[in-house]
Amino acid sequence: MGATELRTRVAALVSEATGGDVPAADVLGGGSLVALGVDSLGLLRLVDAIELEYGVEVELTEPGHRLDTLDDLVAVVEAARPDDAGGAAQLSAAGDGR
Q1: List of E strands, 1-98
Q2: What is the mean pLDDT of each run of 10 residues along the chain (98 residues)?
Q3: Which of 60, 69, 72, 94 has the fewest CB atoms within 10 Å, measured from its CB?
């Protein structure tokens, strides 16, 4: 999956996680997810959707986690793709690979 395709799909997941309250086009336009209207429940739904769709584990318990923009989300997905052993990789939202 190319970078543009990944960004588009993750933006769609944001929209789906908010029940359509935050349009994918707005997410693609940039800015903070919170400023766009993604609340804490929407963020939890989004993390679940990302984990299911991409087979990755996103840790929200790390201090200073960064999942506030589309770029942050895409970086987490790209960095946490399944490893060569076939298992799901785990990446904290802080991007440190713990």
Answers
A1: 57-59, 90-92
A2: 90 97 96 95 95 87 75 88 47 48
A3: 60
